[in-house]
Amino acid sequence: METILVSLGGGLAEAVQPLNLTMIIIGCVIGLLVGAMPGLGSVNGVAILLPITFLVPPNAAIIFLAAIYYGAMYGGAISSITLGIPGASTAVATVFDGRPLAQQGHADKALTAAATASFIGGTISVVLFTLFAPPLAEFALRFGPPEEFALMVLAFATFIGLGGDDIPKTIFSILIGLVLATIGLDIISGKPRLIFFDVSGFLHGINFLVLAIGIYGIGEMLWTLEQTKGQVIVHKVQTSFRAMFRNIRDVKHYAGTTTLGSILGYFVGTLPAAGATPASLMSYGLAKTFSKNPDSFGKGNVAGVAAPEAANNAASTGSMLPMITLGIPGSPTTAILLGGMIIWGLRPGPLLFSEHPDFVWGLIGSLYIANLFTLLINLAFIPVFVRVLTMPFTILAPIIFTLCIVGGYAPTQTMHDVWLMFVFGLAGYLLRKLNYPVAPAVLAIVLGPLAELSLRQSLLASQGDAMIFLERPISATCIALAVALMLYPSVRRLLERRKRAAATE
Amino acid sequence: MTVRHAELWMAIATILLSLAFMYKSTDGLSIGWIPGTGPGSGAWPFWLSTGMLLASLWTLVRWFRGATPEARSSEVYISRETLVVVGTSAGAILFLLAATHFIGMYAALLLFLLFYFRFIGRHGWRATTLLSIGIPVFIFCLFEWALQIPLPKAITEPLFYPIYDLMYS
């Protein structure tokens, strides 16, 4: 415990270094804007802006990106409340009560509640993160290649079991991400693989950013252009400092649901397939169930805004836990952060704590600071963000397309990758319209090389005997859990069918 | 084309893609076990693509049985209105990328932004010119100057010589 406090102190000191503090503030502002814009969430902001972070050292870069992640979770609420459309999927549940509150002229109340609840959610989850991360990393030090591979299988199984999407389409998405990661030179034999039409551009492989920016930049913008053809109506927000303080003091009325939502959000967030969106929906459901007045939900109950907002912020911190300690991202956004860490020459996983403690603790320290700054910036500039939201989409869209194109060029500096990114963007858009989930593919292309390496190392050690994954206790547990998760949807369907059959008899 | 048809075509496309990946995985590579070195280079991609094929066939079967909501949907996959909005944007990006090979990224960006702001966004000439020039200038400062990543310039390269002189002198 003492060592944790000492390290945390060092991390906080690192986070308030001038460069890092500047990165936190800029990141929070960008995150708030990105989160507030309908159609764009943390994952889009992080994917599009990652290439720009080559400007600063890795420590500052990850702090910047984490601040965007954080800010976007706060920002999502702004458009959910003032426009009635979620700024990001993570803020869907915030619309349920945020919208009615705005219609009744209480937008300020809802916005303050969202900000305060986000702060509480963020703080509780960061404390949980600080307590859980070091022991988990220490435990994970025992992991060898078989455990690593089993853990990745488990991560992908969560998409099948808990993703809630069409199962064959989810499997396809995972596998295509893994296959795309194999293109290029084989890491073990050095042989070129899957070089289509002998195009030399494929020899250096497909950078995960090409897929991530293609899908989350270009594909997402095309999707948003399709969705926002109609006009949006902004609700007026009038507020004063006096009213704001009164609203903040109201927190005590929903402190219980907020705390519950934060803890729930944190743990749901650690699962790769779940993350902030289901966490916020579950938290909303819980708040409604435990409320003395469940009928008021959906008609403008402030607790209905606070609960999901606390949960989605907590989930974003939660998703960083497996990324930092195990090297398995807990969400698409952390998958991109993880890819970034590999570009910066850091190997994510348990060794990070012992080999790069300043990096890890600087990041953790920055989460505390970012939380505070986002709250302050959010409360102070709510009217400014609302104005930005009224900016026509035809100004925003070409700017984002431009950032995508130059961002896609930056990592490898070939036009080949930019073209590929455009193709992925179009394909992602068309697939998404048919309900193919795209997040698993992005996660898979980041984890692909690591998964293949750990599989081949394991098989080499066991002379080709696949039983190695079942003979070691930790990997056997992971595989068993993975199998259970994969079977879960069909078991559930079977039970439902039986129940329905029993009901009709 | 309805969503129903689109799902069928997409399933067929994913099957063909899986087959292509399977074929390429065996192309000069071993997909079996090589004694002493472990699985061949093609094994991992080959079995993954086989999984892709199976997942795609599964989707196809579900389509025939009408098990997915998409397979029962008679809605239009891409409406005329969507085609105009999304199609012009995608077309403009296509032009931007193609033009980059001939006139370089900065000139192509200028034209792309001009077209987008003026003809898709219908913004005034003042805002259009300001943004269409301002954004490439900002990108230039960010990439060439701060990040030291030169973007492709093709035949417009000589236009940048005076700026290089300023930057590197």
Instruction: Count up the helices of chain B.
Output: 5
Strand content of chain A: under 5%
Number of strands of chain A: 2
Give me the number of helical elements of chain A. Answer: 22
Amino-to-carboxy terminus distance of chain A: 59 Å
SS-based structural class of chain B?
Answer: mainly alpha
Total beta strands of chain B: 2
Largest sheet: number of strands, sense, barrel closure of chain B? 2 strands, antiparallel
Provide the β-strand percentage band of chain B.
under 5%
- Shape, per Cα inertia axes of chain A: globular
| Helix and strand sequence of chain A | HHHHHHHHEEHHHHHHHHHHHHHH
Structural classification of chain A: mainly alpha
- Biggest interface and which pair forms it? A-B, 58 and 69 residues
Radius of gyration of chain B: 24 Å
Oligomer: heterodimer
Distance between the termini of chain B: 59 Å
Structural topology:
The complex is a heterodimer of chains A (505) and B (169).
Chain A: H1 2-15, H2 18-36, H3 42-49, H4 58-82, H5 92-103, H6 107-140, H7 145-162, H8 167-182, E1 184-185, E2 192-193, H9 208-227, H10 241-249, H11 255-269, H12 276-290, H13 303-318, H14 320-326, H15 332-343, H16 351-355, H17 357-389, H18 393-409, H19 415-433, H20 439-461, H21 468-471, H22 473-504
Antiparallel strand pairs in A: 1-2
Chain B: H1 3-26, E1 33-34, E2 38-39, H2 43-64, H3 80-120, H4 125-147, H5 161-168
Antiparallel strand pairs in B: 1-2
Structural description of this entry:
The complex is a heterodimer of chains A (505) and B (169). Chain A has 505 residues and is mainly α. Chain A has one domain. Chain A is 74% helix and 1% strand. A two-stranded antiparallel sheet of chain A has the order 1-2. In chain B, a hairpin with a 3-residue loop joins strand 1 and strand 2 (38-39). Chain B has 169 residues and is an all-alpha fold. Chain B is flat and about 60 Å long. Chain B folds into 2 domains: 3-72; 80-168, no CATH class. In chain B, 28% of the residues are buried. The N and C termini of chain B lie far apart (59 Å). Chain B is built from 5 helices and 2 strands, in the order H-E-E-H-H-H-H. Classes of the chains: A mainly alpha (505), B mainly alpha (169). Chains A and B meet through helix 8, helix 9, helix 18, helix 19 and helix 20 of A and helix 1, strand 2, helix 2, helix 3 and helix 4 of B.
